[in-house]
């Protein structure tokens, strides 16, 4: 999980309190990855156990400032230097739904159309959010990533429609 | 809110040829685009997107139904008046740009305004303004083959935008541009739209269609479905 390394990256800019880390994490990811404060403190204590961060003294309000260690910087550098594997994503319900619809001999076109309209709605919403957040480069890149993903789904839907329209098997079923 | 369309297609059909060889490019298309509205048209190749744009801008006539631009029905308009209305109100970005290679960027943008009967000095001033708006002030005196593909695309857009036309029709204006450059083109169209123009955009790229207030999907010349931007007031 990248929360660990994300917190290290934020700490590499200077010591931070837990609540600051949470706010900065959300700001950098365009609020697409909300963290609760419990996750932040759990992660910080594991980082401390592994010697990647060091806590300071409690201040008079009981708050603790965390500082990244040399080992922490090395871990962050290792993270930035390692490509992310094409993860075993959770199986995509849409893909399964269309595959099942084809297998069951259902009319797939209305399913594709409804999905395309919904995905376009998502894409429109993301595009508006990106226009509103154009100044912050980190947020912008996160939104861009989601735009590319929605776009890929849309293209795939077009592809499905074209393939099914050309397939004698589905032609027969719909005739 | 009353909806006052800049262009309205009512039950529009377009059939090429007749008899057994007839090709139906559009049928029963109903579509209205209001001032300040950006509508994207998507659909597979051959689904009638360019035909829809041509009919909406009076470059092609429907074989059935009616097209109304700025409250004028184009159906029985004599050719001369149709051409005048088109020049006054419609800016067109063609799928293949249609820039004149022997004219500079500035001259390409100025020429149609001069043809509109505007004095050369005014036409040139307007052209310089709109070239600056699309970020091309520095290359105004270069010829189309002396600028990049993205810059050529922006010249074609500048030409369509010059003269404050109320209806902008753009057929694949992002062509083969990379995504940041394509986004800039959409930014330009969106800005015109927000300034009160009606824009009809043909694109096969979902990312550009997503800039629109509404997305119309064509299939076999018919409107298959429409996606409206979420959070928009109902019309
Ligand atoms: N002048 C013509 N004569 C006969 N058929 C035509 C003519 N112009 C267009 N068509 C046909 O009308 C249909 C719609 O064409 P149109 O150019 O509008 O498609 P399009 O959606 O713009 O396609 P593309 O994405 O490839 O640009 C096609 O089947 C095309 O072959
Ligand atoms: Mg076309």
From TrEMBL, chain A:
Q: Where is the Transcription regulator PadR N-terminal domain?
A: 7-77
The record, for SUPFAM superfamilies, names: Winged helix' DNA-binding domain (SSF46785)
Q: Name one Pfam family in it.
A: PadR
Domain Transcription regulator PadR C-terminal span(s) in chain numbering: 91-164
Recorded hits in InterPro entries, A to Z, give: Tscrpt_reg_PadR_C, Tscrpt_reg_PadR_N, WH-like_DNA-bd_sf, WH_DNA-bd_sf
Q: What is this protein called?
A: Transcriptional regulator
Automatic annotation (TrEMBL), chain B:
Output the InterPro entries linked to this UniProt entry.
AAA+_ATPase, ABC_transporter-like_ATP-bd, ABC_transporter-like_CS, ABC_transpr_LolD-like, MacB-like_ATP-bd, P-loop_NTPase
Q: Name one GO molecular function term.
A: ATP binding
Source organism's superkingdom?
Bacteria
- Pfam families in the record: ABC_tran
Q: Which PROSITE patterns match?
A: ABC_TRANSPORTER_1, ABC_TRANSPORTER_2
ABC transporter domain: residues covered: 7-235
Record carries keyword Glycoprotein = no
Q: Which terms are listed as keywords in the entry?
A: ATP-binding, Nucleotide-binding, Transport
Per the record's keyword annotation, is Nucleotide-binding included, yes or no? yes
Name recorded for this polypeptide: Macrolide ABC transporter ATP-binding protein
């Amino acid at each position: 999980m990248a929360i660990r390394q994300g917190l290290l990256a934020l700490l590499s800019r200077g010591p931070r309190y837990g609540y600051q880390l949470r706010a900065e994490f959300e700001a950098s990811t365009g609020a697409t990855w909300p963290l609760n404060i419990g996750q932040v403190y759990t992660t910080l204590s594991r980082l401390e156990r592994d010697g990647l961060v060091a806590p300071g003294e409690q201040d008079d309000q009981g708050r603790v400032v965390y500082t990244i260690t040399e080992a922490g910087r090395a871990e962050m550098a290792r993270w930035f230097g390692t490509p992310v594997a094409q993860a075993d994503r959770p199986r995509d319900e849409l893909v399964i739904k269309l595959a099942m619809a084809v297998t069951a001999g259902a009319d797939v076109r209305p399913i594709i159309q409804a999905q395309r309209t919904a995905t376009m709605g998502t894409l429109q919403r993301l595009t508006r959010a990106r226009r509103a957040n154009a100044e912050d480069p980190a947020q912008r890149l996160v939104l861009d990533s989601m735009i590319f993903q929605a776009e890929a789904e849309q293209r795939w839907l077009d592809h499905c429609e074209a393939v099914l329209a050309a397939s004698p098997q589905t032609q027969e079923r719909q005739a | 809110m009353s909806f006052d369309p800049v262009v309205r297609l009512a039950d529009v059909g377009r059939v090429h040829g007749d008899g057994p060889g007839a090709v139906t490019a559009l049928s029963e298309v109903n579509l209205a685009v209001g001032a300040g509205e950006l509508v994207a048209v998507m659909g597979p190749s051959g689904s009638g997107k360019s035909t829809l744009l041509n009919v909406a801008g009076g470059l092609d006539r429907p074989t059935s139904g009616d097209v109304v631009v700025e409250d004028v029905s184009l159906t029985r308009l004599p050719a001369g008046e149709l051409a005048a209305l088109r020049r006054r109100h419609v800016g067109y970005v063609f799928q293949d740009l249609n820039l004149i290679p022997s004219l500079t960027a500035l001259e390409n943008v100025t020429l149609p305004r001069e043809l509109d009967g505007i004095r050369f000095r005014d036409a040139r001033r307007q052209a310089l303004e709109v070239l600056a708006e699309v970020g091309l002030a520095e290359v105004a005196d270069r010829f189309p083959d002396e600028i990049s593909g993205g810059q050529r695309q922006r010249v074609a857009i500048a030409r369509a935008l010059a003269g404050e036309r109320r209806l902008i029709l753009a057929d694949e204006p992002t062509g083969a541009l990379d995504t940041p450059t394509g986004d800039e083109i959409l930014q330009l169209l969106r800005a015109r739209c927000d300034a009160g123009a009606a824009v009809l955009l043909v694109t096969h790229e979902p990312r550009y269609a997503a800039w629109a207030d509404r997305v119309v999907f064509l299939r076999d010349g018919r409107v298959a479905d429409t996606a409206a931007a979420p959070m928009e007031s109902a019309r």
